[in-house]
């Protein structure tokens, strides 16, 4: 066995430097911060110590091989060349994880399958039998990473994510991962606070993760002691003597553990408090923490005469759906009021994902760190709580500023109304001349009134662009109210025909999440066709108005052609193709909600029968399995999507070349592929298209009412070599 190994410890995004400091403290002599983790070199015992003692790491990986591979078959050959008998027995179980960056092998599940095949085939050739695959608790978990064409094969010493400490067998809604909670406590300098005996309070403790991790940290208890399974023990090169010695040392230290600092958690939900108490018992820290059911506004009563000031840590609900965010404002306001009234001189730390909600706290953040709680982008905010005199001075200054702002707003409201009326008159004449009933009237023409206003016949859909952090919530509310008051008067529509949403910076897949469940559909018309729109349940309405000319182009190109619509959404493009004379259509999407909506759009326009198929499938996987040919293909993928059902992830900028290539494989020799996206920073990878020719139609397909949004509208016509798909078009 080597005397030292190359190791890699993964970390939650944004926490790499914290992990590096922790690993140095554990005893790692050579540490280097990398993307998504920390590289280190040391003995096997060091790797085992990291598994047992790291509070921040997600996994600890030990490198066993590296080679070059630019395809799944080359990956298979490289894996099969490794002597697996030194790592694993034929009667054991294993599992494979695969990750990549800038690799030609973007389909990670298929790549992992080829790794598994390479291992299994070697064992069959040598032993006549092979190890079984166990995805849940294998004897040996492997991690293979592709960086461009460089392949590195690791043994996962942790055997699974280290955030699963083992004490949390049940959790409340949206629990915080244990290692992320520990990292946030380190950001809050909790070890230094605990050493002075000052308290920690979590007034919305849920399943108790913050408090339990705080107790483990303050008492110097190894977080890995609670884990029932460690991946290192099933590896044939495992050092059992060193592992037993490390466990004995950590166990002895736990038996001597004590903590000077009071650690308190409370929650209004009695069931959550019961779970937190049970979790603390399993973690062995029940004597170090106190949990109690208590209303947020009364949480200060739990402190009694305990020493202070200390720190408050909170992971409040995020309100991932826009409708929920409005409902959460009173909760955030109560949290802020409680902190200001009862915790003068303390420091509060709040994990938040929405700036509008954090403004409701009415506390100024002096530091903020970007954090990802799973896929949700958040900020960990440090909020020093000033004393009453300082707050009074700030409130007086804010009041004077507010009076001046109100006077300025009066002039701005009138300017907004005048601009809106002028745009509506001009675009109304154009829309009537072109027989267009759904169009954009206003698009943040005046920066202070940053909304997009769309007419859908007798209805108006308003989307507010998320205000910048420099605009306080009170000012934003005044402007929203002014907009809502001006719209019925200027556009001459009833107030109950106006729908208002705020378009926040989108997280992965958020544009497809439900905001409500009213299921109220309205019929609108475009080019003699009818489409169903919904203004309440989703961020988007079901009909993208900037795609009007693209749909017209599809209708003109479709006559006599077989049409394929990938990521079909509500199938408005399919309706246009079918009514344009397509001989058959296939529309593919993974969402049952949108496929049902698509079916209703098709039915409403008389498009029915076996020639018009709706397919529920992951588009990338579906493409890989097809052998048919299509004369006209429309691809309009989301910017980012992930599916829990299939485990697949699509990053448009990274994956579009492979996606278009897979679609071109199904394109008839004289066919046309139209590719569309609204990703502002999108850059078409022309090299990835190979011999295919791409013509930029973005300018030709940008409607007059979207001229201010030109950077959001990208359309290309792509054809195989020698074919430009040159049927006449008016686009």
Question: What would you say this structure looks like, in words?
Answer:
This protein has 18 helices and 30 strands. The protein folds into four domains: 5-156, VC0802-like; 178-221 and 257-386, Vaccinia Virus protein VP39 (Rossmann fold); 391-505, Transcription Regulator spoIIAA; 522-719, Vaccinia Virus protein VP39 (Rossmann fold), CATH 3.40.50.150. The N and C termini lie far apart (68 Å). The radius of gyration is 29 Å and the shape is flat. Helices cover 34% and strands 24% of the residues. The longest helix has 47 residues, at 388-434. Helix 2 packs parallel to helix 8 (240-255) and helix 14 packs parallel to helix 15. The strands form six sheets. The chain has an eight-stranded mixed sheet. A seven-stranded mixed sheet has the order 11-10-9-12-13-15-14. A seven-stranded mixed sheet has the order 24-23-22-25-28-30-29. The chain is α/β, with parallel strands linked by helices and 731 residues long. Residues 403-408, 505-517 and 724-731 have low confidence and may be disordered.
Task: Kindly summarize this structure in a few lines.
By secondary structure, this protein is of the alpha/beta class. The chain is built from 18 helices and 30 strands.
How many distinct helices?
18
Radius of gyration: 29 Å
Largest sheet, spatial ordering of strands: 2-3-1-4-8-7-5-6
User: Class of the largest domain in CATH?
Assistant: Alpha Beta
Query: What does the main sheet amount to?
Result: 8 strands, mixed
Low-confidence stretches: 403-408, 505-517, 724-731
Multimerization state? single chain
Instruction: State the CATH architecture of the largest domain.
Output: 3-Layer(aba) Sandwich
Helix content percent band: 25-40%
Alpha carbon gap, first and last residue: 68 Å
Morphology call: flat
CATH superfamily of the largest domain: Vaccinia Virus protein VP39
Kindly identify the CATH topology of the largest domain.
Answer: Rossmann fold
Number of structural domains: 4
The class by helix and strand makeup works out as alpha/beta
Strand content: 15-25%
Mean pLDDT over the full residue set: 89
Say how many strands there are: 30
């Amino acid at each position: 066995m080597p005397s030292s190994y190359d190791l890699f410890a993964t970390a939650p995004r944004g926490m790499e430097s914290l992990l590096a400091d922790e690993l140095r403290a554990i005893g790692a002599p050579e540490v280097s911060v990398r993307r998504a983790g920390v590289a280190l070199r040391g003995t096997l015992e060091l790797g085992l110590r990291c598994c047992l003692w790291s509070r921040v790491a997600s996994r600890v990986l030990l490198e066993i091989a590296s080679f070059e591979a630019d395809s799944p078959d080359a990956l298979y050959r490289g894996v099969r060349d490794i002597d697996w008998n030194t790592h694993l027995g034929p009667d054991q179980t294993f599992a494979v994880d695969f990750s990549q960056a800038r690799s030609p092998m973007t389909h990670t599940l298929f790549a992992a399958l080829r790794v598994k095949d390479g291992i299994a085939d070697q064992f069959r050739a040598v032993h006549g039998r092979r190890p079984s695959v166990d995805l849940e608790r294998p004897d040996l978990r492997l991690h293979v990473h592709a960086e461009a064409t460089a392949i590195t094969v690791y043994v996962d010493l942790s055997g699974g994510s280290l955030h699963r400490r083992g004490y949390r067998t049940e959790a409340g809604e949206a629990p915080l991962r244990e290692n992320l909670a520990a990292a946030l406590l380190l950001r809050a300098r909790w070890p230094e606070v605990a050493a002075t005996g000052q308290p920690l309070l979590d007034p919305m403790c849920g399943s108790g993760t913050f408090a339990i991790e705080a107790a483990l940290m303050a008492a110097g208890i190894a977080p890995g002691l609670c884990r029932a399974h460690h991946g290192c023990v099933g590896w044939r090169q495992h050092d059992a003597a060193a592992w037993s010695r490390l466990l004995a040392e950590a166990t002895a230290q736990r038996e001597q553990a004590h903590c000077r600092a009071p650690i308190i958690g409370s929650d209004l939900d009695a069931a959550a408090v019961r779970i937190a108490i049970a979790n603390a018992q399993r973690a062995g820290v029940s004597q170090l923490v106190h949990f109690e059911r208590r209303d947020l506004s009364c949480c200060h009563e739990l402190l009694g005469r305990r020493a202070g000031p200390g720190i408050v840590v909170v992971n409040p609900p995020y309100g991932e759906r826009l409708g929920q965010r409005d409902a959460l404002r009173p909760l955030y306001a109560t949290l802020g009021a409680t902190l200001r009234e009862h915790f003068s001189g303390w420091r509060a730390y709040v994990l938040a994902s929405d700036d509008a909600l954090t403004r409701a706290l009415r506390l100024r953040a002096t530091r903020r760190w970007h954090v990802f709680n799973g896929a949700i982008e958040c900020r960990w905010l440090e909020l020093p709580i000033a004393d009453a005199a300082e707050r009074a001075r700030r409130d007086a200054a804010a009041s004077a500023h507010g009076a001046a702002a109100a006077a300025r707003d009066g002039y701005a409201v009138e300017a907004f109304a005048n601009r809106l009326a002028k745009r509506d008159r001009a675009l109304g004449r154009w829309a009537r001349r072109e027989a267009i009933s759904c169009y954009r009237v206003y698009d943040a023409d005046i920066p202070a009134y940053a909304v997009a206003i769309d007419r859908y016949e007798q209805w108006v859909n308003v989307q507010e662009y998320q205000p910048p952090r420099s605009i306080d919530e009170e000012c934003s509310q005044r402007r929203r109210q002014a907009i809502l008051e001006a719209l019925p008067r200027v556009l001459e529509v009833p107030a109950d025909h106006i729908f208002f949403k705020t378009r926040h910076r989108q997280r992965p897949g958020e544009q497809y999440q439900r905001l409500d469940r009213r299921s109220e559909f309205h019929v609108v018309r475009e080019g003699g066709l009818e489409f169903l729109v919904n203004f309440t349940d989703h961020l988007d309405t079901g009909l993208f108005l900037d795609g009007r000319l693209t749909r017209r182009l599809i209708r003109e190109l479709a006559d006599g052609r077989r049409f394929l619509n990938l990521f079909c959404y509500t199938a408005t493009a399919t309706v246009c193709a079918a009514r344009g004379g397509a001989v058959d259509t296939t529309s593919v999407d993974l969402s049952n909600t949108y496929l049902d909506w698509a079916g209703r759009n098709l039915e409403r326009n008389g498009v029915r029968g076996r020639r018009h198929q709706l397919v529920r499938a992951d588009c990338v996987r579906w493409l890989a399995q097809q052998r048919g040919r299509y004369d006209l293909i429309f691809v309009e993928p989301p910017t980012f999507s992930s599916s829990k059902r299939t485990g697949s992830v699509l990053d448009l900028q990274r994956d579009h070349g492979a996606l278009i290539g897979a679609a071109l494989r199904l394109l008839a020799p004289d066919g046309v592929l139209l590719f569309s996206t609204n990703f502002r920073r999108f850059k078409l990878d022309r090299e990835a298209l190979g011999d295919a020719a791409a013509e930029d139609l973005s300018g030709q397909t940008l409607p007059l009412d979207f001229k201010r949004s030109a950077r959001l509208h990208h359309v290309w016509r792509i054809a195989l070599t020698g074919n430009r798909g040159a049927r006449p078009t008016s686009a």
